[in-house]
Specification:
The complex is a heterodimer.
Chain A lengths: L3 E4 L2 E5 L4 E7 L4 E9 L6 E6 L3 E5 L2 E6 L4 E6 L8 E9 L6 E2 L3 E6 L1
Parallel strand pairs in A: 2-11
Antiparallel strand pairs in A: 1-3, 3-8, 4-5, 4-9, 6-7, 7-8, 9-10, 9-11
Chain B lengths: L4 E3 L2 E4 L5 E6 L6 E8 L3 E9 L2 E4 L8 E7 L2 E6 L8 E8 L8 E2 L3 E5 L1
Classes of the chains: A mainly beta, B mainly beta.
């Protein structure tokens, strides 16, 4: 069964700092990765997706993907208190349409 | 443009009761998912439908959990009988069904079983 592992479980960064979150899948057939963000008491919302090797940047957020190692990372520069949330990594393999989610990284940005 | 709608937002049940949670997916979406979220276990898939057909029923959740999709725009999740360990947030989500499209989540139903 596919597993998605995220690290660290929790992360505290100062306002203005860089947050780096990691995610690895154990399924060699994974083709797509997503990052979702869930603020406290809210539902998860898609933040970024990445399907090809390399890097993708959107504003303060950068996602990296290494398909050979099935590892993706999310980097948030100039972190803001509003970035404090649970960050969920999700993977989809080429055999199906259901996402498998990791356990999440809880990010706290201290003012 | 309506997103995924879940009702009720909160539910309190006594142990042994039957409860039914409801979900309306995004109009036109073919895939519908029911997840359970707890702090300890994270997001766990309960059921997955594609074009109203049950594709996955979540294995360990089979015995007391039953999801149905009566038509393409409405799904229910029945828990019978409820147990205190079922206390969690139940999230419904939908997507268009193509491989690389976003999954949209509803606001969830917070269930407390006493």
């Amino acid at each position: 069964q596919q597993k998605v592992q995220q690290s660290p479980e929790s992360l505290i960064v100062p306002e203005g700092g860089m947050a780096s979150l990691n995610c690895t899948s154990s399924d060699r057939n994974v083709d797509y990765f997503w990052w979702y963000r869930q603020h406290s008491g809210k539902s998860p919302k898609m933040l970024m997706s990445i399907f090809s090797n390399g890097e993708k940047e959107e504003g303060r957020f950068t996602v990296h993907l290494n398909k050979a190692s099935l590892h993706t990372s999310l980097h948030i520069r100039d972190s803001q208190p509003s970035d404090s949330a649970l960050y969920l990594c999700a993977a989809l393999n080429n055999a199906g349409a259901k996402l498998t989610f990791g356990g999440g990284t809880r990010l706290t940005v201290r003012p | 443009d309506a997103g995924v709608t879940q009702t009720p937002r909160h539910e309190v049940a006594e142990k042994g009761q039957t409860i039914i949670l409801k979900c309306e997916p995004v109009s036109g979406h073919n895939d519908l998912f029911w997840y359970r979220q707890t702090k300890i276990q994270g997001l766990e898939l309960l059921s997955y439908f594609r074009s109203k057909s049950l594709m996955e029923d979540g294995g360990a959740f089979k015995d007391r959990f039953k999801a149905e999709m009566l038509n393409s725009s409405f799904s229910t999740l029945k828990i019978q009988p409820t147990e205190p360990k079922d206390s969690a947030v139940y999230l419904c989500a939908s997507s268009s069904g193509t491989a690389n499209t976003e999954v949209f989540f509803g606001k969830g139903t917070r269930l407390t079983v006493v």
